[in-house]
Amino acid sequence: MSEPAASPFDTDVLIAGGGLAGATLALALSRRLPHRRVTVVEAYPLATDATPDAYQPSYDARSTALAWGSRLIYDDLDLWPQLAGRAMPIRHIHVSDRGRFGATRLAAEEHGQDALGYVVDNRLMGLALMQALAERPQVHWRAPARVMDVTPRPSGVSATLDTNGNSATMTAQCVVVADGGRSGLRERLGFRADTRDYGQHALIANVSTRQPHAGTAYERFTDAGPMALLPRGRPGAAACDSALVWTLNDHDLEQVLAGSDADRLALLQARFGWRQGRFTRIGECSHYPLKLTTVPEAVRPGMVLVGNAAHTLHPVAGQGFNLALRGLMGLVEQFEKADTAGTPLGHLGVLQAYQDEHRRDWQETVRFSDSLIQVFGARSRTLAAARDAGLVGLDLVPGARRWFARRAMGLGRFTRGIGDER
Asked: What pLDDT digit, counting tens, does each position of 93-125 carry?
């Protein structure tokens, strides 16, 4: 349905945050609802100094694990061709318990797919999204700028923007908060977040090993917390670089950060083991506290939280961004239905329908991710034996392994019709 010639709004959808989630939402809206105007408010200047074709990552470039279902979403948005040449396929996932015999192995070929997922540099994804959005005239940017407040109106909402100290207002049918959980906007708008502190930190770094990774991702559970190694590099190359997610308590984090690169490599080797051979290099380390955060009610009339603003998970299972992508597509679906019915995009019924549908997904994903941490974090000998039996069972029983693989691959209702969901 086309909008009236004279719209009472400055824009139809205002997205607070132009990172990977916000930019993906803008692209999806511009393709699914091309007659609607979208404004993206981003706190940082836009990256215009390179294109995906010219992108050359540094050793310390940060990356994201995209599940197979997320690849299908980007395929549907016609963005995957820009990423495929530099997306490292995850062809195998190896899950093990350090010091125990139990393990399970997932292989893409068992599911008739080229990969279980992919590892892509964040900056490459950002550049590809910027390039695609530059060709969508209905998408406008306000950057650098921040959304400081949102006020309900009889119809739609009014957003207060700060641009280099200058205040301005914009009206919209709906404001989508996609600027993460640490900007403060969620709290300023009065949304309540439930948080459980894991009492640990995630240390993120790129590492190299003497042995090529052969497209294998490792989830390694240890008595000090889980670890993950995600394969990096160009497809087809005998790459030896991986992205490390290392869970550490306060004391161990201080020890790792205080040491030299050689000290860090030795600690990493001792903790991870030798399944990937000798660790030969570790790059710049960053870290953040681990918390499970959910917002029980993430919608209000004219306002909705998405991505990390609505939920954050433990990173070791690599589910966070993939969950966010599925949520974005669910929101676009509800906007499409509202558009067809002539209902305002920010109507509470529209946003509540999105939340009800997405809630089932994030609850299942939280249970999947959190149960891994709880079960493998326990030090009981009885539970350790049960973990071994469980991992072996997953490896031996095709149905159980398929269920685990489908969770890891991020398959669900928003990939139906755009790829094989076997």
From this structure: 888 765 544 457 788 887 778 888 999 999 999
> Residue ranges per domain, the chain?
11-86+122-195+291-388
Q: Give the model's pLDDT for residue 369.
A: 67
Model confidence pLDDT, tens digit, residues 46-72: 876 668 887 888 899 999 999 888 999
11-86+122-195+291-388 CATH pick, 3.50.50.60, 3.10.20.30, 3.40.640.10, 1.10.260.40: 3.50.50.60
Instruction: Classify burial at 322, counting beta carbons within 10 Å of its beta carbon; exposed 0-12, middle 13-18, buried 19 or more.
Output: buried
pTM reported for the whole predicted model:
0.88
